[in-house]
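Researcher: Here's the sequence for the chain we discussed earlier.
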Amino acid sequence: MSSPPTKTTFPRESTPESSVFDSFRYRSTTVTTRKQRFKRLAKPISNPPRIKTPRSKSPKLTAKPNPSSLEPHISFEKTEPLPREFFQIDALDLAPRLLGKFLRRDDVVLQITEVEAYRSNDSASHGRFGITPRTAPVFGPGGHAYVYLCYGLHTMLNVVADKEGVGSGVLIRSCAPICGLDVIQQRRGQKTDKPILLTGPGKVGQALGLSTEWSNHPLYTPGDLELLDGPEPENILVGPRVGIQFALPEHVDALWRFAIAGSAWISAPRNTLRPPL
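Model: Thanks. This is the structure I predict for it:
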């Protein structure tokens, strides 16, 4: 693996849609909802203990006037991947914390705008099948990638959560392009910079050029595919997960889908998302 760059500047390509950054407040790595845990089965849990995880230095985001755009520019100066301890918590706690973080592979940088949590006792999770050649990575330690094919066509990227043997993770449902738009468009086969480019988990995997060979790859090591710190969203939305009607009713209805409020880069259906109570 290559060593992390000492200084790399990624200008974000401009989009005609509302910028994904419009709803961001550039502060620390933990989302503002950390004082509230989300509904696990049927009842929310209040006043949870605060979980402290080591953090890498956040990228500096500044808006620079430009004749053609007022898009922000992002400097990843001395930025390293998030430490493995960041990921080794319950998937339901990890999921909202991933919003606003950056996925980087080579020249492509994406910002995570929508996720879904899948827990170990979840009838919608691949962990329900136990350890198989396909699902083994999701039972590994938090911080690794779990990549699988959906319907044999769509490459789905998941971030493994919690401790080794638990079998839980977070599906990356949608992202916004930050850098490498030409490469993203080529991989996706779509010459557009509108949200349709990256709103859907299969689109994210395709944009990053992933295959199932990336399953079990550590996201906390520099180089290749890595997860970097990013700004926390000011507000988020929650709702039920998508396409899991086969699961038990309490899991179908659980509000384990999270998205950045105000972002155009959110997959369908959007009308099931709402601010958390």
